[in-house]
Amino acid sequence: MPYDTSFSSTPRPARRRRTLLAAAALGCVCLIAGCGGGGGGGAAQPREGGGGTSSPPSLSPSPAKGGPAARTSSVPPSPSKSANRTVSGPLSGKTVVIDPGHNPRNHEHTREIGRQVDIGTAHKECDTTGTSTDSGYAEAEFTLDVAHRLRALLQAQGAEVVLTYDNDRPYGPCVDERARIGNRAGADAVVSVHADGSAVGNRGFHVILPALVRGGAADTSKIVEPSRELGTRIAGLFVRATGSVPSNYVGGNTGLDTRKDLGGLNLSTVPKVFIECGNMRDPKDAALLTSAGWRQKAAQGIANGISSYLRG
Predict the structure, then answer these.
(1) Active site residues
(2) Residue 196 forms beta bridges with which residues?
(3) pLDDT one-digit tens code per residue, 230-280
(4) Over the stretch 162-200, which tens digit does the pLDDT of each residue have?
(5) What is the dihedral of CA 193, 270, 187, 92, to 10 degrees?
(6) What φ, ψ does residue 285 adopt, rounded to 5°?
(7) How many CA atoms does the CB half-sphere of 266 hold within 13 Å?
(8) Where are the beta strands (DSSP E) in 254-305?
(9) What does the alpha-carbon distance between residue 292 and residue 312 come to, in Å, rounded to a whole number?
């Protein structure tokens, strides 16, 4: 399903009409941005949060290609919950939960993150290490950096922002706990930030949407539709902000993928999506992901999508 790239503040039209308008919008976006073809081969099957099928060569804090800026440019860590609730803005009264995928120290706690947790329809690992670029820039470092930038942008619009963690624990949280954090916050929107680990030549971003799942502790029936709208808006505005194109190996060039095997989505009771911002194992995508300037654009695109969704 294509994106809704509208910034309009007018009331939302009927959902069926909005879907048709979004399809037309994607055609325009693809003509401008050049949505990629399917030349990347078969789709990878990433683990929870898109860690990819290949293991990272290293998760040690070695410098990323292109210099130390990849690590030193992060917004300084601060408490997970927004401390500034008095800012007035278009998102005042809204709560957004940002879920930075994985944890930079997960690889030091393989037994703990390897234990099985209930995701409603099955059992999966508590968490995974995530992937990295060939030069050693870890996905978990990338996700925290983008999460900090995204938090600042949303707070500036008046939103209350909660992070599922902020480099304040030795590993995790587990995928089921990540879902519960958003649920307990009564979040208006939750976005889990990731980067993929697929084959060289597989490029672009994609947003993962929850499938209709009912089983055990999982019931996504109330969040499927609003999550699709949230994901569609993020995808369209991510294109505008970053110039990136939709994935050429997942989602049929729409930038959207629906999955029922992710506990973070299955167990959510509030609108939630994942975004895989690019493929860390492809050199061209890796050059973007390790650029502080591009990461700011990525955070801006996600923030624009969240704001568009919450403002209607």
Answers:
(1) 276
(2) 279
(3) 999 999 999 999 999 999 999 999 999 999 999 999 999 999 999 999 999
(4) 999 999 999 999 999 999 999 999 999 999 999 999 999
(5) 100
(6) -65, -40
(7) 23
(8) 256-259, 272-279
(9) 30
